[in-house]
Amino acid sequence: DRLRVSWYHAMVMGTSGATTCFSDPKLFTVLRDQARRVNDLFKPKMFMMSHQVSRVVNWCQACRERGQSPGEILAENVRRCIEILKEVSPQARVAVWSDMFDPHHNAREGLYLVNGSFWGSWAGLPSSAIIVNRNTGNSVASLNWFAGRGHEQVIGVYEDKENPDFEERKNDATGLPTDVGFIYLTWQKKYDHLEQYAGVEDTSR
What we know:
205 residues; alpha/beta; 6 helices; 7 strands; globular
């Protein structure tokens, strides 16, 4: 006998990364529960959302039945995430990584195993959302684009580069009315340049 099989499954990126399905209704039940737990424990003045690089989107039945692009799906997801955080703590600020909402970075076609384009994902972000901007490859265009949308920005520097880009990023942000600070970013736990970073950050104020 011949058996014809059709299926889909979650792809693991790197060594352990599996992307949550943006279209599974249970996702928001889990997120609401976690947001409440964090708020009960810490009463934070700000929530940092973890939307960074979404590498697998819009393949499963739940996503495909929506008839939307990855950008539209992500826009709705981040909109609902912010609504949940505001339900839990109306006074708290909300911040998010720039990557997935930046047309000069990952809000585009051809990202990893994504089925479609992330163009337009930024439509889900209110101007009150703080952008943690880590686009060091197209810094000026990115910083000015988010500033034009009225977002305050925390500017990411370093990211384990051979030569720290502190001065360069500070100069890129000069004159921006929406610059609210800098953040030292290391994915490899390299803190050799912290003192140098602190000196540059101090002179930017």
